[in-house]
């Protein structure tokens, strides 16, 4: 009973801190003149701010930390060093969470100026890198991170070519293979604060390198992981493992889905072991964006990326939350989520981007808003601007690779609107080495192959067949290794697309009853795979293309049935453009059936 009473009393005291300090703050500084009392009130504001953080109320926390700073004496860094150090770090953190980047930057610069040693400044360096990245000062962020690693005794090469040698990669992977999953998950915990700080800084610089120096990212990842294997694991080892899993295809030249999946699962288990909620958005983002697309249905990937976004917003890591949010939107779109529902999510993300002044994320998310609007509503049209005008926008030009994203969205928009010639035109402008991710590349190859088939459908000559066969081969090659390695989940995401392209090629070249039947079986397989994966848009597409096939075979009754199935699938998807398109074909098909009857 006494224990309960004591616990309840403490809870009541914590609950009363905020209203109490709010009342005191009304009378400060005029009513509190004693310097010692002012410091006491400052510490109460810090306590109230930490309580606000625990409730994810970062704006309120920032208010309390600002009050606390005003209460400290001018010589605070001499007379109250530890309190000042903590306070300015809290203030920077909450300012960042609220989108007040300049205020966060100012607080961190003060710590870097007033801090007495590198150890006291490491937290500030960590957050400074995040702020610079949010301000799109990626090269400055990278240089700052490398400078800190150098100060910690690390010799990081300047040249970004050929540092991640095959022996370095092979040695690290072989070391990992010597351990069972359980041994890696239960690996001894690092007991050195120095090595813990070093691994944390490596992960932050690796993240920045993705934007500033992509070719250095694998080297930095391997260095971080090697530190963990030598000195013990910590929560940042989870990030190292999932980063290596995502980078394996680039490092080894082939898609080893089994190994990548194993590393990622261990990384997720380490998150749980170390209760690393602060790293969940980062690890989820890497795994469900770049690895799990080969092992899990896209809908599951989207849902987990949405969780990463929600956790990021809850803990105040808005920068990582917005990256998770962008990948959620991409995977949700690719998985056939209802477009109207997804458009609401997109609008919500754009409002948050504006609120937090994250115009980089807004630029990318806005392209999805544009694409979804064009697919939903046939009357929606963009202002008549050229592609060059899109790319020459000052903000968009500053984003590395954004012009490729603009082109990709043009491909998607033209495909679903039925402008196959323009779809192929924009697809041809994207070079093989363009800056887009794995899923984007696979979707691009699919849309291009499907467009080429539509363009050349009535040109049954050798040149057209060769062009179509080459496009299908490129798509098959992009997914083949993953398909052979993992099977079922891979089939959810990509097998339906391959079956549809193969069906179209078979229909294109059909010349007898046997080849016609082979095409129909492939169409049926594509429809089943899309349906089992809840890919409504691609189920509709497969039904639509199957209907065209039956049209060519003069089987108008079967064609009508397929057009009606396609319309139902597109209704579930939420595309009025495709629904109206199918309705027009249905009316024609009904007339054909009536004529035949």
Specify Rg, calculated over alpha carbons.
28 Å
Q: Major beta sheet, specifics? A: none
Extended strand count: 0
User: What is the H/E order?
Assistant: HHHHHHHHHHHHHHHHHHHHHHHHHHHHHH
Share in helix: over 70%
Poorly predicted ranges: 1-6, 383-398, 482-489
* Secondary structure tally, helices: 30
Oligomer: single chain
The first-to-last residue Cα distance is 87 Å
| Mean model confidence by pLDDT | 87
Classification by helices and strands: mainly alpha
Strand content: under 5%
Shape: elongated
Task: Give your account of this protein's structure.
This protein is mainly alpha-helical and 597 residues long. Helix content is 79%, strand content 0%. It has 30 helices and no strands. The longest helix has 25 residues, at 2-26. The chain is elongated. The termini are far apart.
């Amino acid at each position: 009973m006494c224990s309960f009473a004591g616990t309840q009393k403490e809870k009541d005291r914590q609950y009363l801190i905020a209203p109490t300090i709010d009342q005191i703050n009304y009378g400060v500084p005029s009513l509190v003149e004693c310097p010692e009392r002012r410091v006491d009130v400052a510490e109460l504001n810090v306590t109230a701010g930490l309580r606000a953080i625990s409730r994810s109320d970062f704006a309120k926390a920032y208010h309390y930390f600002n009050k606390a700073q005003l209460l400290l004496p001018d010589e605070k860094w001499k007379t109250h060093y530890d309190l000042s150090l903590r306070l300015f770090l809290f203030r920077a953190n909450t300012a960042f969470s609220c989108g007040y980047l300049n205020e966060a930057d100012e607080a961190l610069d003060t710590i870097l100026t007033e801090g007495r040693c590198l150890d006291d400044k490491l937290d500030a360096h960590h957050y400074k890198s995040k702020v610079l990245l949010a301000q799109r000062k990626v090269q400055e962020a990278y240089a700052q991170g490398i400078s800190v690693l150098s100060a910690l005794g690390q010799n990081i090469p300047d040249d970004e070519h050929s540092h991640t040698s095959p022996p370095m990669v092979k040695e690290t992977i072989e070391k990992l293979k010597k351990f069972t999953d359980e041994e890696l998950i239960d690996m001894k915990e690092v007991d050195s604060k120095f090595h813990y700080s070093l691994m944390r800084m490596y992960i932050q610089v690796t993240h920045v390198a993705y934007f500033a120096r992509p070719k250095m990212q694998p080297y930095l990842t391997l260095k971080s992981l090697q530190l963990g294997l030598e000195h013990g694991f910590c929560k940042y080892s989870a990030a190292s493992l999932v980063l290596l899993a995502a980078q394996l295809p680039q490092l080894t030249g082939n898609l080893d889905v089994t190994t990548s999946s194993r590393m990622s699962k261990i990384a997720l288990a380490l998150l749980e072991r170390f209760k690393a909620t602060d790293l969940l958005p980062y690890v989820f983002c890497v795994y469900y964006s770049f690895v799990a697309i080969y092992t899990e249905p896209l809908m599951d990937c989207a849902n987990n990326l949405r969780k990463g976004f929600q956790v990021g917003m809850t803990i105040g890591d808005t920068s990582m939350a917005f990256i998770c949010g962008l990948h959620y939107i991409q995977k949700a779109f690719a998985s056939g989520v209802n477009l109207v529902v997804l458009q609401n999510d997109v609008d919500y993300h754009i409002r948050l981007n504006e609120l937090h002044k994250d115009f980089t994320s807004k630029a990318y998310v806005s392209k999805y808003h544009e694409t979804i609007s064009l697919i939903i509503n046939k009357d929606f049209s963009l202002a008549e601007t050229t592609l060059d005008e899109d790319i020459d926008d000052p903000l968009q030009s500053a984003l590395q690779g954004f012009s490729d994203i603009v082109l990709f969205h043009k491909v998607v928009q033209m495909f679903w609107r039925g402008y196959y010639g323009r779809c192929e035109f924009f697809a041809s402008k994207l070079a093989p080495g363009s800056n887009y991710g794995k899923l984007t590349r696979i979707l691009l190859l699919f849309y291009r192959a499907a467009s080429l088939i539509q363009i050349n459908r009535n040109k049954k000559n050798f040149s057209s067949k060769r062009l179509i066969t080459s496009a299908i081969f490129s798509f098959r090659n992009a997914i083949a290794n993953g398909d052979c390695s993992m099977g079922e989940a891979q089939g959810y995401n990509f097998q339906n697309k391959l079956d549809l392209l193969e069906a179209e090629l078979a229909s294109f070249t059909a010349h007898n009853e046997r080849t016609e039947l082979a095409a129909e079986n492939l169409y049926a397989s594509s429809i089943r795979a899309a349906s089992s994966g809840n890919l409504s848009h691609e189920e509709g597409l497969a039904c639509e293309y199957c209907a065209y096939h039956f049209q060519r075979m003069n089987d108008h009754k079967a064609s009508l049935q397929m057009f009606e199935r396609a319309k139902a699938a597109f209704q579930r998807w939420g595309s009025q453009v495709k629904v109206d398109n199918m309705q027009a074909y249905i009316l024609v098909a009904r007339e054909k059936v009536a004529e035949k009857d």
